[in-house]
């Protein structure tokens, strides 16, 4: 076979596989979006209808329900715990990356091991703990729990990014007259911006999606979106249209944030090529 | 403008690594002093102590008579050019240059003016809004120099600043660095393992090895009067030839070693008389050897082993008994290139002979 033909075939196969994978990943998303625009009857029609008159009734129902309040809870908890995790995570990671810490390997492993806990194992102790603190059904309780998981994660991710910064950059800044704190804020931190973006997205997703702890620790006031979504399945039946509409609305914040930090993320992937 | 004095400087890394041992040095105002040595010899560690990145275990560092051991790097008024240039990837050239001034809360107008000045001085005007990644190696180097110069430091530290450049640019930048330093008369410490750089740039060279100072002196002194075996072997390209052997008196005095002998001139015989019968290391530089053309004193006679033609000379490896002696010979001395296997006789003048003690490695003659 000619070289060009071979190349074209390889190219076609590659594209077909890539397209297939993309479709497989996108399919549930498309399905949910379509379902959210259908009436109760249309959702169950077999074979599925691809062309139909879309309705916004599901969205109207959701927007006027408790779900918006729950979504607000979710966003609040996620934003605060992500912010706190980034602050503590970057400071701790910088310390481990730049200063000799006795037994740092062990300490770092211990920090990571917090994340290996299966949430189900700690849910009951957390429940008892927060009950005696009088923090059941509060956003604060959720923020605290999510911070435990997210801080350990951000320490590990950010340490990797800080390790990549050449020490000379910081030494140069010190010689130029900047104090260690100024060096951190004016040189090191700006250079790990891609790392901060990556960490923020993962923390955000983790906090937004968390279900088990939120289900256990909340009853009414502090209920978050995933729990609220689950509660839309009642003994009177499951309104898939409304659930789909809620899921779509729930996706929006993460998508918007990801688009927002997209450039940083891409730079994060090509990190380590600076000199 | 400043004088730098190092006094009994010692540095230990942990309990087992004695990186810098009892370093004493005076660098006069406006001088360029090169720290020369192989990697791991302690030259960079010494530089880092002067910059303040590591604290000396013992000893004192004086800058203009003031002990600066405990000063924060930023309070020493010392600037440094790093091997990697250490340009901040997130700042434009303009911001890089302004960075040291901002630390001192210089008024904005003055910053702008000084950035313009330095950019003009280093021909960087056209690149002020670029990021370091968008510059060539030579331009980055100039930015690094500019950032160091802009705050008018007392002392300039350079850690192998030319090692990242390609050979041609390196030679170019070497000359312009020298010119710059001489124009500004800023006291400068320059660390390198490249002796050509050291010879070309230095007012004063400090040769280091295994944490110790081997010799301090003008470039020409280091070359002509090496204090010991290490300095003699490290400075000079190709390195000095070393032959181990003893002086024996027969008809005249001769040097005998591994399967070879060198009959010495009578003048040299007298000078080495006190060393007769003692094992020594004889050193002679490749460039000090020339064709014997019938002379019989100080003659090394052997077989050509390898010939490396250079642009205007041959570097010839001569098999001399059990030793190899490198010889640099000008091409015009030969009608046709020397061929391996050919017998060749080379000789040296009395004054170009060096002798070292094989145990202490000190220079004997």
Helix fraction of chain B, binned, reads: 10-25%
Distance between the termini of chain B: 39 Å
Give unreliable regions of chain A as ranges. 271-275
The rough form of chain B would be described as elongated
Number of DSSP-assigned strands of chain B? 20
Please describe the biggest sheet of chain A, giving its number of strands, its sense, and whether it closes into a barrel.
2 strands, antiparallel
Structural class of the secondary structure composition of chain B? alpha+beta
User: Spans of chain B with pLDDT under 50 lasting ≥5 residues?
Assistant: none
Count of alpha/pi helices of chain B = 9
Strand content of chain B: 25-35%
Shape of chain A: globular
Order of helices and strands of chain A: HHHHHHHHHHHHEEHH
CA radius of gyration of chain B = 25 Å
**Oligomeric grouping of the chains:** heterodimer
Largest interface: A-B, 19 and 25 residues
Number of beta-strand segments of chain A: 2
Estimated share of beta-strand residues of chain A: under 5%
Strand order of the largest sheet of chain B: 6-7-8-3-9-10
Termini Cα gap of chain A: 45 Å
Strand order of the largest sheet of chain A: 1-2
Describe this entry's structure for a reader.
The complex is a heterodimer of chains A (275) and B (365). By secondary structure, chain A is mainly alpha-helical. Chain A contains 14 helices and two strands. Chain A has helices at residues 3-36, 40-44, 57-63, 67-98, 104-116, 119-133, 139-164, 167-175, 180-191, 193-209, 212-217, 225-231, 240-260, 262-269, and strands at 233-234, 237-238. A two-stranded antiparallel sheet of chain A has the order 1-2. In chain A, a hairpin with a 2-residue loop joins strand 1 and strand 2 (237-238). In chain A, helix 3 (57-63) crosses helix 13, helix 4 (67-98) runs antiparallel to helix 12 (225-231) and helix 10 (193-209) crosses helix 14 (262-269). The longest helix of chain A is centred in the N-terminal third of the chain and has 34 residues, at 3-36. The radius of gyration of chain A is 24 Å and the shape is globular. Mean pLDDT of chain A is 89; it is low at 271-275. Chain B is α+β, with helices and mostly antiparallel strands. Chain B has nine helices and 20 strands. Chain B has helices at residues 43-51, 93-103, 108-121, 137-149, 167-184, 195-201, 219-224, 229-234, 266-272, and strands at residues 4-13, 17-27, 32-36, 58-63, 66-67, 78-81, 155-159, 187-192, 204-209, 212-217, 241-249, 253-257, 260-263, 279-284, 290-291, 299-309, 313-320, 323-330, 343-347, 354-356. In chain B, the strands form four sheets. Chain B has a six-stranded mixed β-sheet, with helices on both faces. In chain B, strands 13-12-11-14-20 form a five-stranded antiparallel β-sheet. Chain B is elongated. Chain B starts with a strand and ends in a 9-residue tail after the last strand. The mean pLDDT of chain B is 92. The A-B interface holds A 166, 168-169, 171-179, 182, 187, 190-191, 193, 274-275 and B 51-53, 72-76, 78-80, 82-84, 86, 88-90, 99-100, 103-104, 133, 147, 151.
